[in-house]
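Hi support team,

I'm filing this because I wasn't sure whether my run with adenosine-5'-diphosphate finished correctly. The job status page said complete, but I'd like someone to confirm that the output block is well-formed before I use it downstream. Pasting the exact inputs I used:
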Amino acid sequence: MQHEFPNGRILRLVRGDITQVEVDAICNAANSGLRGGGGVDGAIHRAGGPALMEELNQIRAAQGGCKTGSAVATSAGNLPAKFVFHAVGPVYQGGRGNEEDQLASCYRTCLELAQERKLQRISFPSISTGVYGYPLEEAAPIAIGTVFDWLAELRTTVEEAIFVLFDGRTLAAYENALRARARGAAVRW
Ligand code: ADP
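And here is everything the job wrote out:
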């Protein structure tokens, strides 16, 4: 499924493995220690090779880890991309913390990193909805809404943003969110 904006930007949803999709930058769902983990983080490090962790070690030595809601950039090693943006999503705490802002901030920060590097294509996983426990039905509209607004308002050099979603349930939740957002946005135009 995809949504094409009047300004030509494209927001695309596909089911698949994010390490297999060629883009300029792959966004990773990392942890604040930047030490690698399971899920999509493990898959990205396995496919990317040791170069990613070597760069993350340097970043950790220079600035500690990465705070929740932010992201750091490395090269992409053996992945079909130029960069990996390691974003740290919030651990879900029942919505009592600042999780919504922090989740939106992950996507915004990655789009800013893409903008700084003048990149055209970026991919995202469903940040925080795995081990970090963010309910899919809450996370999907936040993720979609943040990227949708960014593309609609031409705030970025990014021409195409692709959510690469690992399973059918996640894809369906993002499709629902995109359909709802596209209907709402049509009113504004
Ligand atoms: P978090 O700790 O942020 O919750 P996880 O990696 O546990 O991150 O899960 C985030 C999402 O990434 C989940 O929907 C999971 O199914 C998905 N995922 C796992 N492996 C991949 C992959 N290779 N490509 C795309 N998405 C993946």
